[in-house]
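# nightly structure sweep
# worker-07 picked up a monomer target from the shared queue
# config: single-sequence mode, recycle default, output format = structure tokens
# input follows
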Amino acid sequence: MSTQQLNYVTKELILVALLLTPLFAQAACESVWSGTVERLRYYDQSGAEKVMVYIFPGSNANYVGFTSSKMLLDGISKAKESQVSVTGYTGADCRIQWMDLVQN
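# output follows
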């Protein structure tokens, strides 16, 4: 496969991933979820700052919602650092509304 063909295939795969991400994300909205926090995506577009949260194993399919709350972000960061299991609820707008963090 030539470099040009490889670049085309790569661009097509990226496009498919971008198109499918909202479908995976919507599956977590308006639901209770639990697991260990695996990945945080820091997002800032036109001054709209938020952190997107993914539970283990951390792929786009494991997106559970976002927050811009300093209080929730502190708890999420603490949970990620200590790798403890958390349970939370994400509203219909995909915003994380509450989270239980149990530390031993």
